[in-house]
Write a structure and sequence with these properties.
The structure holds two protein chains of two kinds. Helices cover 74% and strands 5% of the residues of chain A. Chain A contains twelve helices and two strands. Chain A has a two-stranded antiparallel ribbon with strand order 1-2. In chain A, β1 and β2 form a beta hairpin. In chain A, α9 packs antiparallel against α10. The longest helix of chain A is centred in the C-terminal third of the chain and has 32 residues. Chain B is an all-alpha fold. Chain B is built from seven helices and two strands, in the order ααββααααα. In chain B, α2 packs across α4, α3 crosses α4 and α6 packs antiparallel against α7. The relative contact order of chain B is 0.17. The chains are: A mainly alpha, B mainly alpha. Chains A and B meet through α1, α3, α6, α8 and α10 of A and α1, α2, β1, α4 and α7 of B.
Chain lengths: 269, 234
């Protein structure tokens, strides 16, 4: 993941997090639990039909959350599922089973089997559904809401506070790293040796490390000035409305249906 | 392939087992962190974690036209101690998974085991052993290089092992997955080792006090011996 792509991702995700769609309005705890249960079910299934149901479900979720489908499908398809497809590429040729077609002539032939094609399709499709669910969660939930949800899940305070501080300073350091890289590029003449690239990168990271340490002292003083005692208190309480309950129950229902279809193996595929 | 395993690549059993093992490490890490860390260190660890997050996005070329990026586990371990390194890596992986979609939720335990436990504890232990033998500046540099190399390689081997053992979801066997990951990451590991050692040497030259921060490390492993700066000192 490169620096610029990361920025682009965040800008897009924040744009959709601010929309008034269905998922954006759901309590982050309920949403997290519901989408994670769907994810666990998706990882567990072995046949195509349940995956199609999950695919339809997340597409509907994306539509009612006002996420443009073009963005959603691009974001969910690029990189990880394509990588999975590359991994699955040899499967149709190496899996034993009934022959679908034969490629080549004379004794130089490769058999493509029905089982192999099925295995490859099932592998890539399942990964697509998983990535789609993660994209759905990312583009409808602010990270601060996730941090607040973590607080209620009995996660140690140290962790929640550190995550909060980290999240606040990520963009600053990404920006700083980017400026340092740019400055380095501006001083460069000609092509650098591989070792030279690593060395200058290590110097940049070393400098960033020192700057981060010095900043942390100022951050601490600023926190002290705002009456920091090592404890964190969050303002306001999260409350579940009837909408959240309906959403949670509906997701459970979908999970149960998918698991039932998987076990009964309706349709055979 | 990076060592970030996305959702859907690992069987649920493997996910559950890795979550359970990592949970034990988390419990010990947070218990120790509560004893050792003062309230001043929470902003320190938070900002350093953010900085390593940014550092992970900078790529450098390795052999064969491919690029790699720093994992940062070894440096976190050497500067803050392995438990603190584990907590930092957990935060980095959490934000990468939930904010950037890099990694996964069901595979989170496995990713934390590979990069937050193996990628942090192994470099720390190796560095500690080498520094016990060579008690000077060279010791910490050699330790950082070898530690980072072995840590990275083992993290990749574990990732391959988890993928290979996921017979239901991942289509290839253990031997194929482990070999592929190990070959690729032995090159990446050399890069990680070189960059780590240079960063440590930069810190030794400019701010050696940053290598002597209070460390959150398990009692049974012990702390890194202190290296005094070349000039100055008693």
């Amino acid at each position: 993941m490169s620096l610029l792509k990361a920025f682009e991702d965040i800008v897009y995700a924040e744009k959709f997090q601010a929309l008034s769609g269905l998922l954006q309005g759901i309590d982050p705890r309920v949403k997290f639990c519901s989408l994670v249960s769907l994810l666990v079910v998706a990882v567990g299934v072995r046949t195509i039909t349940p995956l199609v149901i999950l695919f339809v479900t997340i597409t509907v979720f994306a539509v009612v959350s006002k996420i443009p489908l073009k963005y959603f499908f691009l974001r969910a398809t690029l990189f990880i599922p394509i990588f999975a497809a590359v991994i699955a590429l040899p499967l149709p040729f190496i899996t034993p089973g009934t022959t679908l077609t034969v490629i080549g002539y004379n004794e130089y032939v490769i058999y493509i089997t029905r089982e192999g094609v099925y295995r490859a399709l099932q592998f890539v499709f399942r990964i697509w559904v998983c990535v789609g669910l993660l994209v759905l969660l990312m583009s409808t939930t602010r990270f601060t809401a996730i941090i607040r949800a973590l607080e209620t899940f009995k996660i140690p305070r140290v962790f929640v506070m550190m995550t909060g501080v980290t999240h606040r300073f990520i963009f600053l350091f990404i920006n700083e790293a980017y400026r340092m890289l740019l400055a380095k590029e501006a001083r460069n003449v000609g092509r650098e040796q591989r070792m030279q690239v690593m060395k200058s990168l290590a110097y940049i990271i070393g400098t960033l490390f020192i700057r981060a340490y010095e900043r942390s002292e100022r951050v601490y003083l600023a926190m002290m000035a705002k009456a920091y005692t090592g404890e964190a208190r969050s303002m306001g309480k999260m409350r579940c409305s009837w909408r959240d309950w309906v959403f949670g129950v509906a997701s459970c229902f979908i999970c149960i249906i998918v698991v039932l279809i998987e076990f009964l193996n309706v349709g055979g595929i | 392939m990076s060592t970030h395993i996305p959702d859907g690549f690992l069987d649920l059993q493997i996910c559950a087992i890795t979550y359970l093992i990592v949970l034990v490490f988390w419990i010990f890490a947070f218990r120790r962190a509560r004893q050792v860390l003062s309230e001043k260190q929470i902003p320190l660890m938070g900002t350093l974690t953010a900085m390593f997050f940014a550092a992970q996005m900078m790529n450098y070329p390795i052999i064969g036209g491919t690029t790699a990026h720093l994992l940062g586990g070894p440096i976190l371990a050497i500067t803050l101690g392995p438990y603190a390194g584990l907590i930092s890596m957990t935060i980095i992986l959490l934000i990468q998974a939930l904010f950037f979609g890099d990694g996964g939720i069901t595979t989170f335990g496995a990713n934390v085991w590979n990069m937050g436990v193996i990628g942090v504890f192994i470099p720390y232990i190796i560095c500690l052993i080498i520094m016990k033998i060579l008690r000077d500046r060279k010791g910490i540099l050699i330790g950082a290089f070898i530690g980072a190399f072995v840590g990275d390689l083992l993290a990749a081997v574990f990732a391959g092992l988890e993928l290979g053992l996921s017979t239901l979801t991942f289509p290839y066997s253990v031997s194929i997955a482990v070999t592929a990951m190990a070959i690729h990451h032995s090159f990446i590991g050399i890069g990680e080792g070189i960059v780590t050692a240079i960063i440590i040497s930069v810190l030794l030259k400019t701010r050696p006090d940053l290598l002597q921060l209070p460390k959150v490390s398990p009692v049974w492993i012990g702390e890194l011996p202190i290296i005094l700066p070349k000039s100055g000192g008693p």
